[in-house]
Every structure is written in structure tokens, then in C-alpha cells.
Amino acid sequence: xxxxxxxxxxxxxxxxxxxxxxxxxxxxxxxxxxxxxxxxxxxxxxxxxxxxxxxxxxxxxxxxxxxxxxxxxxxxxxxxxxxxxxxxxxxxxxxxxxxxxxxxxxxxxxxxxxxxxxxxxxxxxxxxxx
Length: 130
Description:
Elements: H1 2-14, H2 18-45, H3 51-63, H4 67-92, H5 99-113
């Protein structure tokens, strides 16, 4: 019952048809996979200074899927940064350590989602397979 109310409400608010919902959900799933691929590549590359590139690339790839992908990228990016800030507060006693890095990550996330080239953040020497 709650799910049906949520779907009806969102349909009214967003003005999407049932076909639009299917597309949105598909795009969101594909966008989430794009975000995971960028994260996995970042971990595999283990390249100092490349995190902003992978943030921008994951958001870019996801947003290219359509509105659902852009939504998934924003939700995942915001959740990741929120969790990271919370853990930083616990670990460092709210010293603000890492806040600037988090803001820079969010700038890279927005850059990618807006459709701008993620290679703007690509560090020199990062292997071409990424």
C-alpha cells in the first residue's frame, strides 16, 4: 500500500508515465552500476591524485544514462560524502579534517553530472585503461 502511494505521488509530482517510470528505474540501475565501476576502477588504479577524476567519471557516465542515472549518481555521491563526513567527525573529533576534500569531491561529482568532460580531473600518468 505504501509503495503504491509513493508511486502515485511521484507520478503526480514528476509527471511521468508508467513507461517513464520503467525507463527511470532502468537508468537508475545502470547509473548505479556506472558509479560502482568508477569506484572499483579507482580502487584498482590506486593512483594518488586520481580520486576527483573517478568521482567525475562515475557521475558523468551515470548521468549520460538519463534522468534516472543522474538521480542515482546524486543520491550515491551525497550518501558517500555524508557517511565520510560522519566517520571523519567520529575519527577526528569534528576537527573539520577532510571537509575541504569532501567539498572538492562534490565539485567533481557535480562537474561530471553536468555533462562536462571528466578528463578535466584526470591526473598525468594515470594508465589509459581508466
